[in-house]
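Design job #97: recover the sequence.
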């Protein structure tokens, strides 16, 4: 069976967050049998005056088998940033409306979606209650995005969480009904009922996603460093204990993400 390839790994320079460096994750990955991952660049508010996308691009020369997703600064024009992210060899963009304080359907980010669709970058969305105004990041806003940009590859992280999972599934199902580019369900931080109740879906919820969205559309992510090595190990044990057929388990733990990114399994 191909090795683990996981999504949703936030990484930082040591001077920004010492427990969130690529080196720290690589140690965890080696201990847990993870062969590769998608690194997310720090958001602009986490590293003022930094160059998160350029920094992440340089890290990938040292961490073979890893892929990078860039980030957008809401204070700068979107299209130029998208093109630079693409030129740097990064494969997607993590979009976090509530943390970065912009609506998921504002003109600025719509410009980004258009350019991302054109150059083939994955749009990886945070979806789940996270402060800020719900009207600006409710999952149903992405139905219009899915309609306007039918070839934009999209991942819905946390799949809306406990509060909005059915709305997120509705958007994914609606796009599927139109035979457009499928929406992937990111299952990062959805398996810890006590520590992360707002995004909890549990094994039953993940099984429901496999039923409604398809096991071939589920992608496991670690949410490192917000989740520790112990939390990640617990997630993996829960998924492996769900009784999934081996092909579905392998797809969720790396196969689907590799397919989305056009990578070959090792």
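Job complete. Output follows.
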């Amino acid at each position: 069976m191909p090795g683990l390839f996981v999504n949703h790994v936030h990484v930082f320079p040591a001077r920004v967050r010492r427990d969130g460096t690529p080196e720290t994750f690589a140690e965890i990955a080696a201990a847990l049998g993870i062969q590769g991952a998608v690194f997310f660049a720090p958001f602009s508010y986490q590293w003022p005056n930094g160059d998160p996308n350029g920094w992440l691009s340089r890290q990938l020369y040292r961490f073979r088998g890893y892929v990078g997703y860039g980030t957008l600064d809401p204070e700068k024009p979107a299209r130029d940033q998208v093109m630079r992210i693409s030129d740097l060899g990064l494969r997607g963009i993590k979009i976090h409306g509530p943390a970065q304080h912009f609506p998921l359907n504002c003109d600025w980010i719509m410009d980004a979606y258009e350019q991302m669709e054109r150059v083939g970058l994955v749009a990886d969305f945070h979806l789940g209650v996270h402060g800020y105004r719900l009207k600006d990041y409710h999952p149903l806003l992405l139905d219009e995005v899915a309609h306007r940009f039918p070839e934009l590859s999209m991942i819905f992280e946390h799949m809306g969480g406990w509060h909005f999972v059915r709305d997120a599934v509705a958007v994914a199902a609606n796009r599927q009904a139109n035979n457009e580019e499928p929406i992937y369900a990111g299952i990062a931080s959805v398996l810890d009922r006590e520590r992360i109740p707002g995004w909890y879906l549990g094994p039953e919820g993940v099984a429901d996603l496999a039923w409604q969205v398809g096991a071939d559309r589920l992608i496991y992510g670690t949410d490192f460093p917000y989740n520790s090595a112990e939390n990640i190990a617990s997630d993996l044990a829960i998924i492996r204990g769900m009784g999934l057929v081996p092909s579905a388990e392998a797809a969720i733990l790396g196969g689907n993400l590799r397919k989305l990114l056009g990578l070959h399994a090792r």
